[in-house]
Amino acid sequence: MYELKVRASKTYDITIAEDLSLFSERILPLVKGASVAIITDDKVMGFYGGALDGFFAAKRVIKIVIKRGEKSKNATNYLKIINALAENGFTRADTVIALGGGVVGDIAGFAASTYMRGITLIAVPTTLLAMVDSSVGGKTAIDLKAGKNLCGTFYQPSAVYVNTGFLKTLPVKEIKNGLGEVIKYAFLSDTVKREDIRDINAALIYKCLKIKRDIVEKDEKESGCRALLNFGHTVGHAIEKLSGYRLSHGACVARGMVYAVEISRRIYGLSDETVARMYALLTSGKHDLSCGYCAESIARQITADKKRYGDSVNFVAVKDLGKAEIVKIKISDIEKMIKDYENSFKSF
Ligand code: NAD
Ligand code: GLY
């Protein structure tokens, strides 16, 4: 078992275990009211919908189930959740449990943060992506027609319980999705190494979350260094949008990291040897790193991104593995560097 304490606007513990044997000890003391709402998606419901029931035998438990997938992270389901809480008489003393991947975590977190101006939230992530990233740090969101995550809050959970046992049923595609974020951490800190990525286990999840925890504690609301966690995301989000969300978040982040490396190469004049080490890491997740979108389309999407400042963005660039920094860069310069990268492989 691994544990981490997060000291942000709320102080809370993360437990990383291989089963649910520590759930009673670590979570139940935080569940004070009479009612618990387990929010999940239809697929997780099929596998683990009843997994927590035994712990709450003395409580009234309701289950709110949304359809699996990114398209469910919307205003209609948000209203469905908060209306279900209201119709079932939930008060601020009661608890919401987000049981699922990042989609469930983001929408359940947003509902918990706004229902009666904030109700206790416990995160029980079931995907690798949610275990290493989205369940910690307090970003909650729903998507709007105009774009992803455009409506949300910063709202820390009261606890996070990671059970790696849930990963046994996670399809390979979703493991790879999570590996996109794991590789991101290996770019941000040399505490996660390429060799570590071979074994997806509690130790690896702990290393990733420790990096995230340290950053969130310094900059909870992303006014500075938290933006480092967006490594690969500037282009990654653009590709995600261009694909109509057909490609998963982690798969797009993996492609986005290729561009981040190529843009870093051009900003800093990185040596071929440094870039080769970066590519060795990028390919360790066995992602399809090809991208079917041109520089102009990517630049157009970045221009539409909420993280743009005028004609520029704060871009996360890497001087070496474990040496990332935030640089303000014009979107037109990003476009030029992507074109230069495209031309470099066209000439082979
Ligand atoms: P997801 O929640 O859609 O889950 C992926 C699929 O796996 C779904 O079909 C789900 O039903 C299934 N699934 C979940 N757990 C399973 C299990 N144990 N066994 C079998 N199937 C299982 O996707 P995700 O990749 O977990 O999350 C992506 C979302 O997370 C995106 O909306 C992204 O914006 C968000 N995100 C948020 C943050 C944050 O800090 N809040 C960070 C990164 C990503
Ligand atoms: N996943 C990026 C963040 O939490 O800030």
Bound molecules: nicotinamide-adenine-dinucleotide, glycine
- Nearest-angstrom radius of gyration? 20 Å
Mean pLDDT: 95
Question: CATH first level of the largest domain: which class?
Answer: Alpha Beta
Terminal-residue CA separation = 50 Å
What CATH architecture of the largest domain would you give?
3-Layer(aba) Sandwich
User: Percentage of helical residues?
Assistant: 40-55%
Shape descriptor reads globular
Largest sheet: 7 strands, mixed
Key features of this structure:
single chain, 348 residues, alpha/beta, Rossmann fold, Dehydroquinate synthase-like, alpha domain, 2 domains, seven-stranded mixed β-sheet, 42% helix, globular, binds nicotinamide-adenine-dinucleotide, binds glycine
Please, could you describe this protein's structure?
- The structure is a single chain.
- With 348 residues, the chain is α/β, with parallel strands linked by helices.
- The protein folds into 2 domains: 2-169, Rossmann fold (3-Layer(aba) Sandwich); 224-346, Dehydroquinate synthase-like, alpha domain.
- The chain contains 12 helices and 12 strands.
- It has helices spanning 23-27, 42-48, 75-87, 102-114, 128-134, 172-188, 202-218, 233-242, 249-268, 272-282, 295-303, 331-346; strands at residues 2-7, 11-17, 35-41, 60-66, 95-100, 120-125, 139-144, 147-154, 159-163, 308-309, 312-320, 323-330.
- The strands form 3 sheets. A 7-stranded mixed β-sheet has the order 1-2-9-6-5-3-4. Strands 10-11-12 form a 3-stranded antiparallel β-sheet.
- Strand 3 (35-41), helix 2 (42-48) and strand 4 form a beta-alpha-beta unit.
- Helix 9 (249-268) crosses helix 12.
- The N and C termini lie far apart (50 Å).
- The model has no long low-confidence stretch (mean pLDDT 95).
- It binds nicotinamide-adenine-dinucleotide and glycine (GLY).
- Glycine binds next to loops.
- The site of nicotinamide-adenine-dinucleotide (NAD) has 30 residues, from helix 2, helix 4, helix 5 and helix 6.
